[in-house]
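YM 10:42: Hydroxyacid dehydrogenase sequence, as discussed on the call
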Amino acid sequence: MRILAAGDHFVRPELIRAAVSQELSGTGGELPEFGELTLPWPHEPFGPVGGVREASGTEDGLVEALEGAAVCVTQMAPFTERVFAASPELRLVAVSRGGPVNVDLAAATRHGVRVSFAPGRNAPAAAEFAVGLMLAAARRIGTADAELKRGVWRGDLYAYEESGGELGGSTVGLVGYGAIGRIVARVMRAFGAHVLAADPYADPAAVRADGVEPVGLDDLLSRSRVVSLHARLTEETRHLLDARRLALLPRGAVLVNSARGGLLDHAPLPQMLRDGRLGALALDVYDVEPLPDDWPLHGVPNVITTPHLAGATRQTAHRAAAITAAEVGRFLRGEELFHLANPAVRGGL
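YM 10:58: structure's back
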């Protein structure tokens, strides 16, 4: 039996191979044959490939590498209808990310291929990064750093009207209360913030048990001095924060998005920042990635930008490999998968 480790320059093939080997080492049998493929991400941006989103590499390269493979562990490989049709021995695709957006799930189901994913793999990293963005935006760290590097000493940022705000004692709103949101809430409460959470899928009693107030989205936006987005991007959540909802924010509020760019309607933001309606904006994700030269927020004051790095820790890469390796182990032992994306497909090899 052959397993393809289709890694990249973050979740590297050798990490996948080591994690799967460790998972299977206690079974007493021979380890499977491994093949390796290294995709170009992140040295080359991901994007749409053959009808799937956020993928890296080519269909031709993947089909060639999959020859004879029953299992593939990957983060970014483009699993399209064409790839499934050309890989008749394939039975499991274990995707080492929070959602299998690089997989055509309908095609996988038609071809009898099970697809698993790795929820929570980057939750600690993404939560820490979101907190860092909140601090940087609220305290003008990005502005002060950029100005000092230009040789400008911005002592005027100590003036009352220019001073930032503290998280302690503030109301912080979290849009989405999954694994990442819960970690952020714990840190915010440690700072002394009052935390609101808007998530229609979260159990209100469980939210309250965390010391967090569950509220509706409009209520959260109108009450929060700092808002951080942690929802998944679906057709229902695209432009969840549109012009109407952005107008609900208190004047001078801080807005952070390290989840998905499509959650936020970017069109109203430049004017909101210029006229002070929005106090600061921190973004790690965008409506278009990489950013074009004419991106409307280039040069707008009080904007902090990072290139989609929230999950970029070595621990995330190791967790991703370990979670998917555990799914491979369950699959080969004939056990139920913990994170199956297409439950209509049943059975093993």
